[in-house]
Amino acid sequence: MKKILGHTWKAVSYNLGNLLLFEIGYRILTFFLAMQMIDHAIDFSLKRQGFSYLTAENYGEFIKSPWTIVLFAGILALLLLFFLTEAAALLWGFRHSASKRKLYASDFLVEGIKGVFYFLCQGKLAWIFWAVLALPFLAAYFLIQETSYVGLLEFTGRKIYETVQPHGLLYALIAVLLLISLCSVSALPYCFLEREKNARGLRRGLELFRKHWREILKGFLILYAVIAMISAAFYLIAALGVTGGVMLLKPEEGKITSILIYKEYIQIAMGVFAGGVQMTGSLAFVYTVYSRFRKEKTEEVPLCYLTRNYAWLSKIGRRKGAAFLTLLFIGAEGCYLGVMAASHDTVLESLNADAQITAHRGGALRAPENTLSALSYTWECGADFAEIDVQETKDGQLILLHDDSLKRITGLDKNVWEMTYEEIQDLDAGSSFGEEYQGEKIPTLEEVLNFCLGRLDLNIEIKYNGRNEGIVQRVVQVILENDFQDHCVVTSMNYQFLEQIKATAPEIRTGYIMTMSYGSISQVKAADFFSIRYDYVTEKFVREAHALGKEVHAWTVNYRGNVKRMLDIGVDNIITDDPALVRKVQNQESGTKTGFLELLEYALGI
Which residues are catalytic? Predict the structure, then answer.
């Protein structure tokens, strides 16, 4: 095993400099190209479907649209082509390195394009599919890391996780997929490096894995441990560098916000870097195993024929020309990244002192959620609002409850619409939080309004479960009967609920809850403000909302750095489990000077 890993390093190190130039340039280009294509595809599909925006409510209709399916299928096909080109480039590069031939970054690209061309011409589509199955194993870290930056993909991943029950089944499916993917990885050298039909190459690759699977698995475990250490070192060095730069160059009031902005770019770079290391190391190891059990004839490396016919290149020489083109390419990408980073660093001069604070679920940090005890805590800690969740019982009573089921809060595995108010009154909503709250009851909306009048304003979220179509009118009625319309806002993820409120009681302020947002919000007429998950809140979104005369409420913000970030970009209300923390940050009571170690913690996400 030690010998195989040694040969793996030799395959990588012989052309290491130009290999790194190729990987950096290729990965940055394809990553940002993919991001741009996805954003444009979402906008185009939204327009074709007549939506001005995309959020959780219309997500199902959007994702099932033929426009969305066709556009994303095309993007997926292009991404797979990018993957095959990179795999072919690396494998051919390792073959030439084994023969002690020097390559330029441009040679890697040409070899990749040639390799993919021959590969696609050799076999049927089904065999190409099997080769593409190598992607999950070779790019697992990259796929996980970078998917988190595409809101639609991240939201889709969460939906899949919530849908597939039990979760153990999902993990088993992922494990099976990775095992199949590993088998496909073993076939890639045969598919790209040998002039034979893909079917035979795949069979030979699977036979190689079958005979040497123990050695291959052991090698990958060692290799990935090394890759993990290299990636961790890269992340630490990047975080230290960015932290030092912020300490020296940024004003005190903008340091935390700046470090959080740059942290996002560090994580993007981390995904690109670690993904490239994983891909390169994995294919180098597979090539070493492949070449160990096969004697192969090598061919001369062709000149970079895509550029050699240019007159200027023949004058300055291939070496200088390749170096010039490579540096120009990397420099252009570096400038692009710099401009992007600078455009997002719009730190305000001071904290938004007027931003209000809302306690999430009535004040669930110190007491059982959506109870009078929680509201008492919220009032005592000085929050401006308490956010509560309203559901409807079987007999039409309005109560405070977040989930459709009563199990998490009371232990009873029944849905709220299956229980009468009298039955729910017998349940204990406090013991699950702590013994001192044993016997705490689930209150009605009317009880809560009477308790909060003159003490605390409310953010009343109307939950939609498909069985409470008449709930809006009942909520409005209770608010008006208790003269609470000037002391509350009403929110919902169901936009039709907001339209019903405005048609019945336009004086009640409404907020549209958005788990994600793409497109324009200019047509959302029934909402006076937008309540959006904090990691989707951007400077651009806040500016657009304010230009429309509407507020932005960010939820659920519990981390000091994120609180500071939301205040700096100008949100109007922060919904949090910890109102005291938000107030401290807002008043700058936690200290006027931020030290290097504290900034480093933000950069590392500790």
Answer: 360, 402
